[in-house]
Write a structure and sequence with these properties.
single chain, five-stranded mixed beta sheet, 464 residues
Length: 464
């Protein structure tokens, strides 16, 4: 038999959602352990309302205040001449006078430029072409204006000679003589004698036996019947139910005679097989083969191809490639510019500006402003307030459910609710939504726990 408090905690952990305990932060939860009940009793989680009392106190509804009256100041008016702009000196600019002159200005200086030829179709030589000429013997820095250089191609030179070349290396030739055998017969034992063990199977018989598979016990079970659910924390019904022991007829197989092992002798087995015996091993005969040579013509390079540059008026070897560079002299350029030069420079002259005055009215204080204060007393009122003496509680209370509810009890509940003005349905003993709504209103108006048909409510109604 399980411990009752342990069983209660286990059932609670399965039936009560965790979120229901956090539904109201001001509510005391006293449902951690199920009550000490008798078999056949049912309990439901109900909300026991908070207890309040009325307290009378005098409250200040309007504090003491004061009113302030301001008496303005008195002023005298006088006229006075005021300087609004002081005398100053004004500076006037006299512009400069200019005259026109003509001057020759150099717009492009004289220079030299490397071109592809000195004719009208000559274009500037590329940096790559100038770099090739400099690499192949042209001193670009010491060249004279109107001097030209041309590029020539000198092909590579080759020479042909004879050379002896190895066409087949020295090697060995090996001749193999196979091994010699003679045929014979030999008796071979292919399986040795042994001892074998033979298993004699055990014998069994089947018998029947009564076995208790579950002892008698009292357990808490979720009850059924009318449930009033105020929120997720109320309305669960638990009943303590007596459950008898359970038995089961089983068939058992029992040993009638045990298994045994007998030992048996197994004779050896032989076989005649043909065999080959070695008469002489295989042998190898080595023969040397000489190397072979051949004579071939070999062409080798005597000098690489080259590009050379020389002055256009100097003869030499090679074929002209068509690349030419010439140092061309380009004269300076001038243009006539008309410009204005200062004949008389600009100057500044001074002019006197007189001061400016204005007549204004000035107010002077003859008597200062004053304030007058009047005190208004505070106003009080008597108020009645409800003070909470104990917080709302969530606890288990004994209720009616399917196991302990009768139609006659249901009719008495409906009749009391109807007589009290909470219910206007039929007196039929059927607890439906209309009856449960009336029960909840009756419980709230009478400060009774809500969440089920509690025994406390039945006592209040005079039914129990």
């Amino acid at each position: 038999m399980l411990n009752k408090s342990y069983a209660s905690a286990a059932i609670l952990s399965l039936l009560i959602p965790v979120s229901s305990f956090a539904a109201d932060t001001d509510r005391v939860d006293a449902t951690d352990t199920l009550p000490d009940a008798k078999a056949g009793e049912c309990y439901s989680k109900v909300i026991v309302p908070a207890v309040f009392e009325v307290v009378t106190e005098e409250v200040m509804v309007k504090p003491e205040t004061s009113t302030v009256e301001i008496i303005p100041a008195v002023y005298d008016v006088q006229e006075k001449e005021v300087l609004v702009k002081e005398a100053s000196t004004k500076l006037v600019a006299v512009p400069a006078a200019y005259r026109a002159v003509t001057e020759e200005v150099e717009t492009a200086p004289a220079r030299t430029e490397w071109v592809t030829n000195l004719g009208r179709r000559g274009i500037p030589a590329s940096p790559a072409l100038l770099a090739a000429a400099k690499t192949n013997g042209v001193d670009l820095d010491s060249a004279q204006p109107e001097q030209c250089f041309t590029e020539h191609y000198l092909p590579a030179k080759f020479v042909t000679t004879e050379k002896e070349v190895l066409v087949k290396e020295e090697a060995e030739e090996i001749n193999i003589a196979a091994a010699q055998f003679e045929q014979a017969e030999e008796t071979v034992m292919i399986k040795a004698s042994a001892k074998s063990k033979v298993l004699i199977q055990a014998e069994y018989e089947v018998i029947e036996e009564q076995v208790m598979i579950e002892p008698a016990k009292a357990v808490w079970k979720k009850g059924t019947g009318p449930i009033t659910r105020i929120d997720n924390s109320t309305g669960d019904i638990m009943c303590l139910v007596q459950i008898p022991a359970k038995y089961k007829t089983i068939k058992k197989t029992v040993l009638k005679s045990p298994s045994a092992v007998e030992e048996v002798e197994i004779p050896a087995e032989s076989e005649v097989v043909p065999v080959s015996r070695l008469v002489s091993d295989s042998a190898a005969d080595r023969i040397k083969l000489p190397a072979q040579f051949d004579t071939v013509e070999v062409t080798t390079k005597e000098s690489d191809a080259a590009f050379v540059w020389r002055s256009a008026d100097v003869a030499g070897d090679g074929t002209a490639t068509g690349n030419t560079i010439c140092l061309k002299a380009i004269p300076a350029k001038f243009t006539s510019v008309k410009k204005q030069v200062v004949d008389v420079p600009a100057s500044i002259k001074e002019e006197a500006v007189p001061a400016v005055y204005k007549t204004v009215k000035i107010q002077t204080v003859s008597s200062d402003a004053e304030e007058r204060r009047t005190v208004i007393p505070a106003v009080f009122d008597t108020l009645e307030t409800r003070v909470k003496k104990s917080r709302e509680r969530l606890e288990w209370q004994r209720v009616l459910c399917e196991t302990n509810m009768t139609r006659d009890t249901n009719k008495q509940i409906q009749q009391v609710l109807k007589d009290s003005g909470y219910y206007n349905g039929p007196i039929d003993g059927s607890i439906g939504r209309g009856t449960l709504t009336s029960v909840e209103s009756y419980q709230k108006d009478n400060d009774l726990p809500t969440g089920g048909l509690t025994i406390q409510m039945l006592e209040k109604m005079g039914i129990m």
